[in-house]
Description:
Blueprint (H helix, E strand, L loop, with lengths): L1 H5 L2 H7 L1 E3 L2 E2 L19 E6 L6 H10 L3 E6 L6 H4 L1 H16 L10
Parallel strand pairs: 3-4
Antiparallel strand pairs: 1-2
Amino acid sequence: MRAFKKANHDIYIHMQGVDEFHVTGNFKDWEMWDRLPNIKVPTLVIGGVYDEMNPEDMKREGHLIPNSRTYLCPNGSHLSMYDDQQNYFKSLVAFLKDVENNKFTPDKKQ
């Protein structure tokens, strides 16, 4: 709630629009799928099964980023760090430890 109180709604509306479901701002035609393969750092694509973003799109995102892992919190939504904390942080901490200890291995890409 503290973060939402500090959000700059003018910028949000300019870029996004009134909400995530009615994109009318600068992001309306923004498309970056073709640039995801350019990300070279270890990346964790994390979200929830019940997220606003389609889980299949999150899987696609992870597939396109060459050095990535994808984790979908089974009980999570758009705020999985809140509503599926145990799964979210278990996955996040494992990812961070693997990167820090040079033991990171990406998901197998098909």
